[in-house]
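# step 3/5: fold
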Amino acid sequence: MGLDEDSLEYHRTDPPGKIEISTTKSTNTQRDLSLAYSPGVAAPCLEIDEADDEAYTYTAKGNLVGVVSNGSAVLGLGDIGAQASKPVMEGKGVLFKRFADIDVFDIELDEADPHKLVEAVKMMEPTFGGVNLEDIKAPECFTVEERLREEIDIPVFHDDQHGTAIISGAALLNAADIAEKDLEDLEIVFSGAGASAIATARFYVSLGCEKENITMCDSSGIITAERAQRGDVNEYKQQFARDVPEGDLADAMEGADVFVGLSIGGIVSQEMVQSMNANPIVFAMANPDPEIGYEEAKAARDDDVIMATGRSDYPNQVNNVLGFPFIFRGALDVRATEINEEMKVACAQALADLARQDVPDAVVKAYGDDPIQYGPDYIIPKPVDPRVLFRVAPSIAEAAMDSGAARTEIDLEAYEEELEARLGKSREMMRVVLNKAKSEPKTVALAEGENEKMIRAAYQIQEQGIALPVLIGDESEIRQTAANLGLDFDPQVADPAVGDYEGYADRLHELRARKGVTRTEAGDMIERDSNYFGSVMVEQGDADAMLTGLSHHYPSALRPPLQVIGTADDVDYAAGVYMLAFKNRVIFVADATVNQAPDEEVLAEVTKQTGKLARRFNIEPRAALLSYSNFGSVNNEGTRKPRNAARMLQDDPEIDFPVDGEMQADTAVVEDILEGTYGFSELEQPANVLVFPNLESGNIGYKLLQRLGGADAIGPMLVGMDKPVHVLQRGDEVKDIVNLAGVAVVDAQQE
């Protein structure tokens, strides 16, 4: 099937459409219902009656946006009317929810009169925290937005005007930087003079461009002062009428620095691009067909054409989803009365700054694994980059507070943590650990230091103040790779082939001489194997922790630290633990990587160490030792091991958290089963530490929970070692390395 047929099937599959209403509070009991509705609902109603602002406390108003349209200017479809525009407005709601966790009611109004539209929206003001106007034709859209901004006390934003302006504005900031041109010197030509073009031209002036340097063309040619005097253009176009000779788009583009296309496809030729100034900036944003194709524009010049379009299949997509969800997120969270020019500029600057940062692996993978690095082909962030929320929303909130548009002040540092939590429990949990790490950074040795991911991770670890990273490997290669990646940092490197590390070889020989390792072999191992080098480095106290495993199988990466560092004095067994973060709970799963067939002593040790790990994440452990039996319902060697381990732990005075077992997995995690059928259990609440009876079941269990349960997995985290060591999985991403570095630092802080 083609795209159209696929889309029809997508939309009509039961339930039809793309959105639904869901509850955020429990509605399982009669009491729940009496709280949600009559008679209990009267209490919040009375509170709001006393003070209107209490609506933000007792209702969803503060996270609810109205997407309002009359369907008079739907992108690519024109005036199709209110009813036919509904799929577009539902889609807008999907984007609000997906990217910024904002709820939406889509409102399609069958009304062409702009003044009646205004009155209709005004009557809905008590419902919403903000209003997103969508697909209303020009010039009526200007009237609607201007009046609503004046007459209601919540943010109003016409995305067709300002979205493109802000995102292309961010692109312009970076394009000018790369082309080494000053904004105030840019000669800018617009093709198109509708709502989006006029708003974009206005916004470029807010960024620092000169209005006198902007030439705007409509279907009749250059908008000149003479045409304005004749009354050939409306009042909104007149503000960009220029005292120049009349002409067409080709005349306007000659000698220009920037072309901004917001018109129709195929109207710009290669000759027109060739007539522009050196290193031209071409934003051909007509959809679905740009004013000039990407390849054609690039091929038109020998110098560096910086090209952007509205298409996702070429670099530098100007996509409004980079703006409106995050703009409203920040505005809602400070209860802003408007979205003003200062907030729009803050958004563009935040996006431009983000494009200059190292790009997460997940974003690179989403776009085909090709390198993504600041330059002509990457001047604005990708829409799927999760960091956009953390950069743009706080910038909007700060600008609102600074400009007086905010009703409430917020702590911006704490606000970023709240935003992290909106994207998932794993981010919230990792923020706890990373904040602890930043409070007292430690030195972390990164074996496999020549690996590009390790170098990028070292940059992020150092930049964020999580740890003091030391890359182990060839120093010249590491520095060259860092330079090639455009990373602005001076990495600390330990090069085994250059430095004086004879003492490391002596120590390794001392530790392994009775295991058949000669002094010569120890020297070779130190020089050639960064895992042995890093292990001795930590064992000798020259680093506080170590990470390895990116390019080795787990057992081979684990072997050197076990041989050199070993387990803690009071621990006989190390174990691998995953933290699985679901929407509303966190579970630690052990052992998933180390002990194949543990006996009861090993199970008890693994449980003890995993409980300690949970507390590093500020989670009070409740441990369940799992089996296919519940508390003796089956009695054989396999079920007795977790049962005996549970008893050992219950009798251990050092264990100050609840432990029970053996029990089935659903007994451990379902409150009704635990409290109802097995009310005698030591666990009064569902377990958050699950200890599996062997490596096979542990590995299978965590992967099923992760894949089918939709959990985010952090780990594996190695527990029980004498000094902090963590072994990555082959293929882990940079963010995984950064996260485990944070865990390693917190481990070291507690040494």
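# step 4/5: annotate
The two ends are 60 Å apart (CA to CA).
# step 5/5: archive (pending)
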